[in-house]
Amino acid sequence: MGKLIIDMKKSIAYESRVFQHKMNAPVAQLDRVPDYESVGRRFESCRARHHVRSGLQRICCDPFYCRRGISMEICFTLVYTDVSISQEEKTMSNNTVELKHDYADINGVRIHYVSHGSGKLVLFLHGFPSFWYMWKEQLMEFGKDYHAVAMDMRGYNLSSKPEGIEHYQMKYLMDDVRAMADYLGYQKFILVAHDWGGAVAWPFASRYSEYLEKLIIINAPHPNIFAHLLATNKEQQKASQYILFFQSPDAENIISGNSYAMLFKVIVTPEMQFTEHDRKMYLEAWSQPGAITGSLNYYRAAVLTPPDIKNNPDGKGQAAEAFTQVMVQVPTLVIWGEKDTALTIHNLTGIEEYVPDLTIKKIPEGSHWVVNETPQLVSSMIREFIRQT
Fold it and tell me: Hey, how many other C-beta atoms are within 10 angstroms of the C-beta on 78?
């Protein structure tokens, strides 16, 4: 890679004419540093932050999403700052450089995904209100000996956000996963999913079992167990009342207020190392046009909803009784943070009736966000399960 020298007196010299960006586009031949009035602006001006940072020098490259609207096949934003970069930021920057960002036009939508490594496919599905970034530690870990891929699911971050609640029905969400595997060239893969990603992964494993070698679910209820709890369990009914709020027409305005303070309160726990860089990444993802509505549409299109216990304390929830059985025949690992306040521990009872080849690993001190609270522990559990014959 070319060497970029940035002098604090604002003298700029470019000593190489080749920069290979991270999104599978052709190598760009540059005679000089483009001047887009961007010198001195922060690197956040490009959405996807495909950047290389070292000391005071920063380059950002994104061929699709330049906020400045520069009409070029590839846009480069050169930025410098007199603010020192912490060692933590340098480590994160080095990690980011090793990850590959790309897009797949599948199933009528454009899906942004991030990958690392080669070999068997391990596909990661996030939930609400996350995006590919929640799996950054797992991408680095499993990219050592697998082709690790994390999607931005439809409606989130840089992926397409089709208008209309009907586009977020489960059949389309499952088909996105199948089409992604086909696009990447895999007939068999390992699926790892959290929260809403798990809500998609359970029926996917039932309908498309021929695609899966193994299934790993993290704090995502099996739909039949969840349906039963919504119909009979007061504790889970009470814990699920937030779903009714997410389905309401006021949800977008309330959630986005005060710089998404509500969402940060939801996803950040004292047990995790949540940096300022992490905060910026999430803030940028949530700020993408249509992203909050797209993510909320998962709830609005959901078959299962809790009863409104305030107005109907004896209700059983929408479609709870008549939900189709979801049988999963592939080897399955369920990892569960026991301090999950949205999904009670009762969701683990009876799963074996629907998943004969089942392993359950509990993390007593883990919350719903156990993936980001104890990433090394979660990764070790996944790796151990994958290695089992």
Answer: 21
Distance CA 8, CA 80 (A): 9
Write down the domain spans for the chain: 4-94, 112-387
The active-site residue out of 116, 194, 222, 368 is 368
| Domain 112-387 fold | Rossmann fold (3.40.50)
Q: Is the pTM of this model over 0.85?
A: no
* Catalytic entry in 152, 195, 278, 340: 195
- Tens of pLDDT, residues 26-67: 323 233 333 323 323 333 333 333 333 323 233 333 333 333
Is residue 195 part of the annotated active site? The answer reads: yes
Which among 154, 77, 158, 51 has a CA at the least distance from the CA of 112?
Answer: 158
DSSP state, residue 84: P
Contact by Cβ (8 Å): 111, 104: yes
Is 116 marked active-site? no
Of 156, 168, 299, 354, the catalytic one is 299
- Based on the residue annotation, tell me whether 299 is a catalytic residue of this protein: yes
Element (H or E) spanning 114, and its range?
strand 109-116
Within 13 Å, how many C-alpha atoms sit on residue 35's CB side? Answer: 2
